[in-house]
Structures are given as structure tokens and as C-alpha cells.
Design goal:
With about 375 residues, this protein is of the alpha+beta class. The protein has 11 helices and 10 strands. The strands form 3 sheets. The protein has a 4-stranded mixed sheet, with helices on one face. Strands 2-3-7-6 form a 4-stranded antiparallel sheet, with helices on one face. The relative contact order is 0.12. It binds flavin-adenine dinucleotide (FAD). The site of flavin-adenine dinucleotide (FAD) has 23 residues, from strand 1, strand 3 and helix 11.
Length: about 375
């Protein structure tokens, strides 16, 4: 991207090397076995990438949305699963503690989360509250010295293997009476329920969080009571632009695989790259990838420059995610078509890329919810009649 700084270009190169050395050799096997690349994940701590958006004075890299999106794209081109776990850790948990935590919370949690000793996750979705996140029913009730937490979360990335969870819960009757708590593995009454077996993102563990009268001290609450809606929504916006980076990575990986195959594979005594229908798919895929890339990084850049606030941030991050997610699924499907029968097998990575790409049309808000956000902004009150 034309506006990447020297620091961002160096980061891109570092993550590219890391992904090729640590992720590429393992991903096919781990995807098949549904296992997490724990060793590679922890190495991200040595590279200083686990607190990418946290301020330097709090032990982070002090970088922004463009840098985080670059990291997602470079890792996502090779192994979208580990990248999804990385996103849940850095953007949904570590970034939030860095942005909203008290000095004591930052001191207690950030060093181990940033070094890779602890893995983090975020609990918002529930069995009865997905798209309607504010319909959650997990509840924290006041006690003399803190709160008792009851309820459960589902679809939590890093749920089965995480140590620290940034959890949203109701602390009052109204939809917006939402507070945040940091819940630690090992707390009495907290368990991590079942692990899901998934179609894609299979090397990123997804599971449930179960809270059965978890006694939380007052110091576990992040920010003021009943004040979490704004920070949850703001983080969803950042999640959407950075997760779009994973879609970019998947699309780029699929285009590279399809291009290499098209040059190599011969039918009718010619490389299939000489057939116009193959050329058309590759040309369209590459153009759509570049268009998405321009939108996603512009959104990230505007975020970093403080030009995206309030609804503008929600709309542009929704547009970036909607476009990138749909583009990546289409590109991965086209790559399968270009590889023919081989594309449909596990001999080549494009079928995994298609399975992984589909998740981004659902997680962090579905395509339909992205369209609702965009349409409401354009149509105003008329959209809700
Ligand atoms: C692999 C994976 C990882 C995830 N990681 C996390 C995580 O770490 N933390 C977390 O909190 N959550 C996580 N999620 C949850 C994710 O954010 C939700 O799955 C998502 O928001 C959709 O919610 P739902 O699955 O309950 O679908 P539902 O909300 O039940 O939606 C079902 C269908 O109805 C449509 N729909 C719903 N409302 C509307 C509407 N108003 N207009 C039009 N259509 C509508 C949806 O678009 C969808 O097609 C993860 C999910 C997956 C699959």
C-alpha cells in the first residue's frame, strides 16, 4: 500500500518471514487434526506482536490499525486459523485491557499476555445472543465486596486454551447496562465448556465459557459499572477492519496458488493459463483483491489518524469487512475452480482457504449485520420503518 511507513514495511517483512517459517509447515496437519499451533503462537511474543496496539509505556508495540491489519494479512495468507486466534488475543483482549484497564489491571495482565505466557480471549456472544449482542443474559450481581457472575458465552475464540477472558455481562435491567470483567482460568465456578468442531478455522480453538457463581472482586471490573456498551462497540469496529486483513491474506494466498497452478498445469498441450476463462477468473480475483485492499487499509489509516469516530467508524469498518469477507470467499472458490479436481482435495491449500474465508462472513458480525449498519446510516429513520 502506497502509504505504508518504513516501520510498517519492516513489520510486513518480519511477519511474512515468521509465517513462512513457523506457520506454513504445520497448518495442513493442524487443520486436519483441529489442533492449535501453540509453539508458533507463543513466538509472536518474542517478536513483540502480541501487544501490537498497546502503548509502548504499557509494554506494547505502540502501533495502530494499519500495522495490525498488515500482521493479519501476512499471517492470514498462510494460516488463517492461527491468525484468528491472534486477533482474538491482541485485538479483542489485550488491546481492550490496554485501552480501558486500570493501571493495576494493566500491570497484572499485560506483561504475561504480551510475552505470550498467557493467552487471551473475549466473551460477548451467547447461545441466545449472537447478532443481537445486547440481548445477552450473562449477569453479574453485586455483593458486599464485588460481584457474582452467572451465565455463559459461546463461540469464544481461544476459549478452550485461553487463560484470561475479557467478558461482558449485564449489571442492570436495561439493554445498555453492560459492564466488563476480567475472568481468569482457575477461578472457582469458571469452566470452559465444550470445544466446537468446525468447518474452517480448524486450528483456532473455539469453545464455551461457563460461569456458575464466579466470585469476582471489584478490581476485576474494567471501567465504571454499566459503561461498557461504547467500548464494546468501538472494539467491534477495530475488530472488523483488522479481521478484514485476514480476508485479504486468504485471497492473496488463493490467487498465488491459482496463478502458480495455472502456469504449470497443461491440458490440450497448453498451460491452462492460456485459456481465456482461466485468465478472466485470475484477472477478476486480482482486481477485486486490490479494490478490497484499498478500502480496508484506507479504513485502517483513517482509524489511526483519528478521522473515524462514532458512526463513521462503524460504517466504514462494516463496509471494509463486508467487501473483504465476500471477496475472499469468492476468490477462494474461483481458485478451487482453477485447480479443478486437485482444488477439491487436501493436496492443495485452496479448499482450506475457502473454508476459512467463509468464517469471516459470519464472525465479528455477519454480512447481513454489516449491511444493516451501512443501510441504517444511509437511510436514517426510513430504514427502521
Ligand atoms: C469460529 C467463530 C469464532 C468466534 N469467536 C468469537 C469470540 O471470540 N467472541 C465472541 O464473543 N463471539 C465470537 N463468535 C461469535 C460471532 O460473532 C457470532 O457467531 C456472530 O455474531 C453471529 O451470531 P450467531 O452465530 O448467533 O448468528 P445469529 O445472530 O443467530 O444469526 C443467524 C442468521 O440470521 C441473520 N440475522 C440475524 N439478525 C439479523 C438482522 N437483524 N437482519 C438480517 N439478518 C439477520 C444472520 O446474519 C445470520 O445469517 C465467533 C463465531 C465463530 C463461528
Amino acid at each position: 500500500m502506497w502509504f505504508f511507513s518504513e516501520e510498517e514495511k519492516m513489520l510486513q517483512d518480519t511477519v511474512r518471514q515468521y509465517a513462512l517459517a513457523e506457520l506454513a509447515p504445520k497448518i495442513e496437519h493442524l487443520d486436519h487434526e483441529e489442533k492449535f499451533n501453540d509453539a508458533a503462537f507463543r513466538k509472536l511474543g518474542d517478536l513483540g506482536l502480541l501487544g501490537i496496539t498497546v502503548k509502548e509505556e504499557d509494554g506494547g508495540a505502540g502501533l495502530g490499525a494499519v500495522a495490525a491489519t498488515i500482521a493479519m494479512e501476512e499471517m492470514g495468507a498462510v494460516d488463517a486459523s492461527t491468525t484468528l486466534s491472534y486477533l482474538a488475543h491482541t485485538i479483542l483482549c489485550v488491546n481492550q485491557i490496554g485501552a480501558n484497564g486500570s493501571p493495576e489491571q494493566k500491570k497484572k495482565y499485560l506483561p504475561k499476555l504480551i510475552s505470550g505466557e498467557w493467552i487471551g480471549g473475549m466473551g460477548m456472544s451467547e447461545p441466545g445472543a449472537g447478532s443481537d449482542a445486547l440481548g445477552m443474559t450473562t449477569k453479574a450481581t453485586r455483593t458486599a465486596d464485588g460481584y457474582n457472575l452467572f451465565g455463559g458465552k459461546t463461540w469464544i475464540t481461544n476459549g478452550p486454551n485461553g487463560d484470561i477472558f475479557y467478558v461482558y455481562a449485564k449489571t442492570g435491567e436495561g439493554k445498555k447496562n453492560l459492564s466488563t470483567f476480567i475472568v481468569e482460568r482457575g477461578m472457582k465456578g469458571f469452566s470452559t465448556g465444550k470445544k466446537f468442531s468446525k468447518m474452517g478455522m480448524r486450528a483456532s480453538p473455539t469453545g464455551e465459557l461457563v460461569f456458575e457463581d464466579v466470585k469476582l472482586p471489584e478490581s476485576a471490573r474494567v471501567g465504571e459499572e454499566n459503561s461498557s456498551v461504547k467500548m464494546m462497540m468501538r472494539n467491534l469496529d477495530l475488530e472488523r477492519v483488522t479481521i478484514a486483513g485476514i480476508s485479504l491474506g486468504i485471497a492473496r494466498g488463493a490467487i498465488e496458488a491459482a496463478t502458480a497452478y495455472a502456469k504449470d498445469r497443461k491440458q490440450f498441450n497448453k498451460p491452462i493459463a492460456s485459456f481465456q476463462q482461466i485468465q478472466e477468473r485470475i484477472a477478476e480475483a486480482s482486481t477485486n483483491y486490490e479494490a478490497s485492499r484499498a478500502l480496508v487499509y484506507s479504513c485502517a489509516k483513517m482509524w489511526d489518524e483519528g478521522k473515524l469516530v462514532g458512526k463513521q467508524a462503524s460504517v466504514m469498518s462494516a463496509q471494509a469487512k463486508l467487501h473483504a469477507a465476500q471477496m475472499a470467499t469468492k476468490v477462494a472458490l474461483d481458485a478451487i475452480q482453477i485447480l479443478g479436481g486437485y482444488g477439491y482435495t487436501r493436496e492443495f491449500p485452496v479448499e482450506r482457504m475457502m473454508r476459512d474465508a467463509k468464517l469471516i462472513e459470519i464472525g465479528a458480525g455477519t454480512n447481513e449485520i454489516m449491511r444493516v449498519i451501512i443501510a441504517r446510516q444511509l437511510l436514517g429513520e426510513a430504514a427502521d420503518q
